[in-house]
Fold this sequence. Notes:
The chain is α+β, with helices and mostly antiparallel strands. It has helices at residues 6-15, 29-38, 67-75, 115-120, 128-135, 148-154, 170-183, 190-201, and strands at 60-62, 65-66, 76-81, 87-93, 100-101, 107-111, 143-147. Strand 3 and strand 4 form a beta hairpin. This is GmrSD restriction endonucleases C-terminal domain-containing protein.
Amino acid sequence: xxRSIIPVLLAASLQAANVVATPPNxxxxxxxxxxxxxxxxxxxxxxxxxxxxxxxHWISQGNSCDTRDLVLVRDGTGVTTGTGCSISGGSWxxxxxxxxxxxxxxVDIDHVVPLAxxxxxxxxxxxxxxxxxxxxxxxxxxxxxxxxNVNQQKGxxxxxxxxxxxxxxxxxxxxxxxxxxxxxxxxxTSAEKSALEGxxxxx
Length: 203
């Protein structure tokens, strides 16, 4: 599991310079298409009862780090830390819009498949532990450091409503979204599937 390799991940990331990191386990084009074809198409479920608090996130990952810290370290360049796991320096390139930031406060950690979207597509029936695992998933392409206001613009939108402004990232974004939905057995709407097919066509 990810937690067992955290000290190694942190040390290696802090020592490396100019590392261009990406979320793990992004599928190949062919695998993403196979996964998309396997997804169940269904109408979006109700948002009734949804709360972000039902998806405990940025949990402790050991070594004085939480999930957000580890994604900032993974996705940044020249990241340094102060006391504990507080981020004291580095830069972050946001693949959604092509902006580079040197303050961690300008960066959000995006849930590629937003928590509310997951709720409407199957997570409403999960246990709290299952939702916590989803919200802090460091093993699949579900978390990525991006410009904060871009993440806020995205909100809980699916790809039928919002995609990154950088067309060069459309293929990767589509593959990440498909992989997460497939891994967690979440459904897609017909409009969402059509949008994902368009994104994979860009590969």
